[in-house]
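R.M. (postdoc): so does anyone remember the format we settled on? I'll just put the structure tokens first.
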């Protein structure tokens, strides 16, 4: 499984995108990702102006993607570190 996390927004609007294989994630990052995927938010709620929004794309073994958008306030710290 591949994980792509893109940080969007903020004051400057600079995007940061990182791609990782799930085997390269720490145990804490895998657990945080599992919580996000289980909650399955597909759109942003609770966002605020000039705050970051994270687009998380999980590409499963069969090639099917699952895309979620998560506001900065709901993004686990463990996953924010990936886009650092």
């Amino acid at each position: 499984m591949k994980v792509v996390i893109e940080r969007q927004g903020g004051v400057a609007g600079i995007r940061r995108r990182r791609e990782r294989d799930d085997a390269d994630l720490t145990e804490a990052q895998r657990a945080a990702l599992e919580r996000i995927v289980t909650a399955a938010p597909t759109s942003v709620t609770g966002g605020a102006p000039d705050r970051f929004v994270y687009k998380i794309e999980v590409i499963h073994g069969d090639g099917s993607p699952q895309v979620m958008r998560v506001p900065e306030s709901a993004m686990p710290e463990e996953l924010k570190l990936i886009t650092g």
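R.M.: ...and that's the designed sequence above, right after the tokens. Also worth knowing: The mean pLDDT is 85. The CA atoms of residues 19 and 36 lie 17 Å apart.
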